[in-house]
Design brief:
heterodimer, A: 442 residues, 7-stranded parallel β-sheet, 4-stranded antiparallel β-sheet, B: 87 residues, alpha+beta
Chain lengths: 442, 87
């Protein structure tokens, strides 16, 4: 059983704190009876100097109701009072005295502790009848009013969810649907993937996602929602992940796809029940093999969603597979809904989605090729692509009979125009505009 | 160095064997299927040509592209990750 505090409102909340009473005495019943009005010495003589109208109720509470202690909770001399060594009778009287002398802003207030069963209305009335007692009452119970822990503690940091209307969208059940990811792998042990059905193929390489890129992409698509862990993926969907990158970089710190594993994975996708394939990868040269493989994907009814590339400031080359026939190409937006400054442009772009500073899952285990563990913020058209792949899967779940072309058209036609588009229906910078999940799922 | 060799999908085994033999004569160490056990004809016609270190890849590409049953021969393509550094 967890020892963590619960912020939930109790099912049957306590009305009063057990065994606690608030006692407020008339200040004049203390002043003028102790030797100094400014500084108590906590001397037994001071206890004996108090009037019977005050000591009588205190003694009655102690003898007949088992009063254990009086705590002058607002006294400036509280620490000194706590150090007093005296019997209950004397100390309780000194406590009441301290609640008046050197107390502010409410004079005469103290808390009393006694067995809960002894606190009865008759007892309270009897004590309150004394002219030296202004009031005595049970302490009302109060509890924390924070809401329960958020379903996914970090989801408020996932600006992409808000920008795409995820919070307001009528999200479909995607549990029967599979999304394919060809990437650097996935950390299937990540707590935010708990309970997720993941088929992971990493033939010829280690199981580890040494780069973390694939784990990040997978988290944007499908990290568990409402699990009180980390981030929220866009939807719960089966994942089929192929690791198509090697464990070591080929050129400096640059990782490149293993073309054979890549083509083999596409063949496996064609043979599978995958409806949407996420390709957060890019390269400048057109390749016949890749084109032919993607032709087979189209025949199989798979919607391939690919990244436009991040080389806008490095020549803005046309990137593949995004520029390939029938591939749904995704550019990146920043938090202010302008094109991310790295995001490639071109006539083949279909849509834009959040890609700058995207928070998502990262592998738990250490790797020399990445710094962050558990969660990380990454930027790229890769991240934008993951948002769109998840959205495509949702549209497919909402309309199971729709083919890839119709799903793609729904994503484009429901897009939100952006200020940078200047009123045009589409631009080479943004495609049809910002992914609008709310409208796409109407 | 590796090349990607795509046969015409309707090419027969004899024609493919002849092309592989030609490739070896030009300096290929090995010619093998890209997707072993592929079910779809498009993938069954994809091959990898592994060249010797001293082979002239341009010559091999030109020579094999001239063969009737070859659809295309290309250098291995490259694809990288489309994410920038961690913020």
């Amino acid at each position: 059983m967890s020892d963590l505090p619960s912020y939930e409102q109790p099912e049957k909340p306590l009305e009063f704190m057990p065994g606690e009473v608030v006692l407020r005495v008339e200040p004049d019943a203390v002043r003028g009876h102790v030797s100094s009005a400014r500084a108590l010495r906590f001397d037994p003589d001071e206890a004996e100097a108090l009037p019977a109208s005050l000591t009588g109720p205190l003694d009655y509470l102690r003898v007949n109701a088992g009063l254990r202690a009086i705590r002058p909770v607002l006294s400036r001399r509280r620490a000194a009072f706590e150090r007093v060594r005296a019997g209950r009778r004397v100390k309780q009287r000194l406590g009441v005295a301290a609640s008046v002398i050197d107390s502010a802003p409410v004079e005469g207030l103290s808390l009393g502790t006694l067995p809960a069963r002894n606190i009865t209305p008759d007892l309270l009335k009897l004590v309150e009848d004394s002219p030296a007692v202004r009031l005595i009452e049970r302490v009302p119970a109060r509890w924390l009013t924070a809401s329960p822990a958020t379903p996914d503690p970090a989801r408020n940091l996932q600006w992409g969810l808000r920008a795409t209307g995820w919070f307001d969208a009528n999200l479909p059940d995607m549990s029967d649907l599979a999304v394919g990811i060809l990437d650097s792998g996935i950390d299937t042990t990540h707590p935010d993937f708990a309970g997720l059905e993941i088929d992971y193929v990493h033939d010829g390489t280690s199981r580890t996602d040494v780069i973390g890129h694939g784990t990040h992409v997978a988290g944007t698509i499908a990290s568990a929602v409402n699990d009180r862990v980390g981030t929220a993926g866009m939807g719960r969907v089966r994942l089929k992940v192929w690791k198509v990158f090697p464990d070591e970089p080929q050129q400096g710190t640059n990782f490149y796809i293993d073309p054979e594993r890549y083509i083999q994975a596409i063949h496996a996708v064609v043979e599978s029940d995958i409806k949407v394939l996420n390709l957060s990868v890019a390269g400048a040269n057109k390749a016949m093999f890749e084109q032919d493989a993607f032709g087979e994907l189209r025949k199989a009814g798979v919607l391939a969603v690919a990244a436009m590339g991040n080389g806008f400031r490095k020549g803005n080359d046309t990137m593949y597979p995004a520029a390939g026939e029938g591939v749904f190409a995704v550019g990146s937006l920043a938090e202010d809904r302008t094109r991310s400054d790295f995001s490639n442009t071109g006539p083949h772009i279909d849509l834009a989605a959040p890609g700058s500073n995207v928070l998502s899952t990262h592998p738990v285990r250490r790797s020399k090729y990445r710094e962050k563990r558990h969660y990380a913020v990454k930027s790229g058209t890769s991240m934008a692509t993951a948002h769109v792949s998840a959205a495509a899967a949702m549209v497919s779940a909402r309309h199971p009979t729709w083919d890839a072309d119709r799903i793609a058209e729904r994503l484009r036609s429901s897009a939100e125009p952006l200020g940078e588009m200047g009123g045009r229906d589409r631009t080479d910078e943004h495609g049809a505009g910002l992914l609008n999940l709310r409208a796409a799922l109407l | 160095v590796k090349l990607h060799l795509k046969f015409e999908q309707d090419s027969d085994a004899g024609g493919r064997r002849a092309v592989a033999k030609r490739a070896r004569l030009l300096g290929a160490k090995r010619v093998r299927p890209m997707v072993p056990g592929a079910t779809k004809p498009a993938f069954r016609s994809m091959y990898v040509v592994e060249l010797d270190d001293d082979a002239d890849s341009s010559q091999v590409i030109d020579a094999l592209n001239a063969e009737d049953c070859v659809q295309s021969v290309e250098p291995e393509f490259t694809r990288g990750l489309a994410a920038a550094d961690d913020a």
